[in-house]
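[stage:ingest] chain + small molecule (zinc ion)
[stage:ingest] validated
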Amino acid sequence: MKERKYCTFCGKQLLLKTLDDGTKEKYCDNCNHVFFPTPSPCAIVIVTNANKVLLARGIGWKHPYWALISGHIRPGETAEETAKREVYEEVGLKVSSLEFLRTYTTKDHELLMIAFKAKTENTTSQELEDAKWFDLRHPLPMRPESIAAQIAKHVFPKITYTNLKEQT
Ligand SMILES: [Zn+2]
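[stage:predict] done
[stage:export] tokens:
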């Protein structure tokens, strides 16, 4: 996680403050504000229909892998609302059922990813640019150690992955 050095509000250099429970946290003595190192919450969604799974790619990705649809939770939004909104915004599909799976944290501790399984009835009518339906019975082009691949494995334990070479 990136270290915060300065106060977001007044720009003053942060100090370390010992809290009542003995932990030390970054503190602005000007604003009397403690900056807890909290991860950003995101929703990540595995969209399925029968034996198909919807995988997505981000704009400008250099590697050959596909991932799942995900996005940051906006203030006032529930994780469920984020999941549905991201699927609609990214691929124009309405989710017919949404089921919470579990949560994951990224290696750099920046994100708390709240994973959902979603179903959609519509797998054919959309021209998807950055997403594609893949048959679960064939190896999937996912990076095996990624959170997206862990989620896919959690939902569909029998899946395998294609052996893709990273471009350098
Ligand atoms: Zn301050």
